[in-house]
Hints:
The chain is mostly beta strands. It contains four helices and 40 strands.
Amino acid sequence: MKKSLITSDLVPKSGEFTSTPLLLALEAGVWVVGLSTPAWGNVATLPAQGDGSPMQEPPDQAVPMPTLGAAGVPTTAPMPPEQTSTVVFSQGALRGAGGDEGQGQPQSTVGLAHPVQVKAEVGSSQLATPAVPDPAIAPACPPAACAEAPIAAQGVERLTEVSTRASDLAQPQPELTAQPQFSRSSTGGFDLGALAAPWAEPESQQRSTALAPPSGPFPAPPDREVAGLAAVATTVDLPATDDGAPTAIAPGTLSPVVTSIPVDGELIEVEQAGRAAVGVGLGNDRSTNLTFSGRVVFDRTLNSTTVGNVTVLRQSQRLLRSQNVLRQRQLNITRQDPVTVLGQQIQTTLLADCLDGSGAVCTFTPGLVTDRDRVDPDTLQPTQIDQTSNFGDVVSQASLAAIQAPGFQGGAEGQALGLDLYFPNTTTLAGNGRATGGTAQRYEQFDTVPAIAYSEIFQTVVANANQAALARTIRGPAVVLEADQPVINLALAAIALLLPEVQPFVPNSEAPSNPNLNQGLFFAANNTRIPANSLTLYQSGVGYSATPSVSETGQNAPWANFNAVWLGLSPVTERSYQTGRRFANVSSPRTLFSAGGEGGGLDAPQTLSVVNGETFASSGLSNVYSQNYFTLFAQEADRIDRFVQTDRVSYHPHLSVTGNVTGESSIFRYYAGTLAGPTLQAYGGANVQGQTAGGFAYQAGLIGYINPSYDRYSNLSAGVSQQLPLGDRQNLTLSTSFNWALDQNTTLQDIEQQGQGSDVTLQARLDLGNFTLGATQVVGDLLPNSQASRTVLNAVFNLGSDLTLAGFWAPFDNATSALRYGLAADIALPMGSLSPHLVVSWQNTLYRYGADLVGNALSTRSNNVEVLLKLDW
């Protein structure tokens, strides 16, 4: 028995069952006090129109415009993931730790290719809602400039240095840049893209940190902090014992330059007992999430020992930290377009005398019937076609009589012959009688888990007459409380406390130890590059510097160096997506066209059947009877396209070695590391930055990756800045910078899109005392894979020591996700020793999804609010 298939122009071939690409541009922005916009959209290959020419799409649309064609089994085009950049408010005059107004270095920043996620007081970038980091940490930087992790001003509340992350999931970078700390800050500011400047320091300021002064009372506190810690000339009275017995040092005696130690992006002060922060993030298109973080410091010691002519300063702390970190983020985007669904029904039989000459009548088509109970209600596609007879089956007399009756008949007495095919969805047309415009909706869901870390911190400084050495060790278990925690993470956490503490060494000297230590030694230790958003298991390093004599403290400070090894757990994001299409609110079929006929002999409709390459035409058969009926119908419906992107964050072992050389007004860093995960990544890089006494600043950096990924990739960056003084607390800062993404991997599952990790940025900032105005222009398309052009204007008002207001407006943004405007307030609440701070922010974001099926602009607006309360004691 031969099997056959009928081919006809009325029946679409299986290869023609194609669906139109899904038009969704995925961009998101969430802010806390600064702002976040997508750093790079994505561009997929454009489909061809009916004439073969590429379709035109609106700027920065991540996915091509849909084409109208036959809709069979949906093959919706996959969507690329969201990306982020950062917009940071300008900074006005800064408040000192004591609440006095200080002359700070404002900045106006639009995050370049990628924001750096700063692990903050309320949590790391993995928080379910964007957390407000410690204002001590500068938030954003170009990726290549992110090759270091020095600590910036502690206790200085400023909106400009609050990190924000689009969709609460900024892309992790292997480096973190905060405010660099030079041995001496030159006069003038430093505003290079997202880098904050060290504060200006008078030339007459000493450049040493004295551990034990020759004599004299405790000096008055400096009127402002230098490089985020304290003025460099701090002298203390330490007993000059030579019996080797440690002598306890009273709290507040030493400069914070000596006693403040950074741990995972937080500056731990020896006198601070604890910190707690709680926050909430909510909006009309995201889940409501609570965030928390806290730390408790206990078992603190600070003492000094002098043996021979070597003085030893020993500091230790133990602390317990906890915070919630992001485990999963899911983005749902739903687009609804009114459409008219066209369907068709094809009914055909071809009967003739059997080929064996028996005189019986046979069918020259197989029996194929659509099971109407098996039509998918979502796709309107048949899921089952039954074969009811075979080619060459003998037609019974009852069936022959039924078929020859008027109208299509498939047979009688259980025999079903011919084709009775029902396709309710063969193509769609834009619009219907109920509506003509489409809509889009988005929703983000964040799921978090707690992370707990116990850390022991040790710092030992030894000094003789002409040099000093500093050793710093941080060790302890850190665990993310998730069910599928990798065994190797638990093993590393278990052995973290067993890793050794490093010790410094300087030889004994003939002269007594010199108390005027080069503060650059402490800054070099703080300038150690720490992988961002990570949990430290073990960090150990040693640094050295010559010590200037008392008569040389007003001259050039010596260089200081520090080299360290770091072992910890870093976040790795794995992204996946799902797409789907369905039809809803489907009306009853409405017949548009119906035609057909039947007959025998010369009246038989012409029918052609091709079976296994052999052709059978009705004109070439004897005793022919055929039926041919065709019906075209339409149904009104809403076509709903859905895209779901899931980002799962897991922590993997990360080993890094790094060092730096810190001078009076420049820093050179070098580093290398390897990060385990689904793919082992190794990297290496270097970064240099500095400033001059005339207000000129510069930076340049390069990082290279083996196995670059979507989030971590090779890049080159550079920039310059010039500050022009206009008067007392008044200056104009102009800067320009670029970042070039060299090998960003932008593949997501089976699609490849164009990354936007590159940018060229121009900035200007005008400081007028307590009022600051900033303007930033990102110039797109100058570098390969550049982000979209945008203009951002912002302002900051410092209204006394307890209130700071900030706002921004983006008059032009060519990205698919555009932050339009927003406001923020930082309020200090007088409550004694707790020093609470309340930060409230709001932003409005426009999400563009190109055009709907009939050409109308398709977009949504989002309003998000963040509230954070932080307590210190």
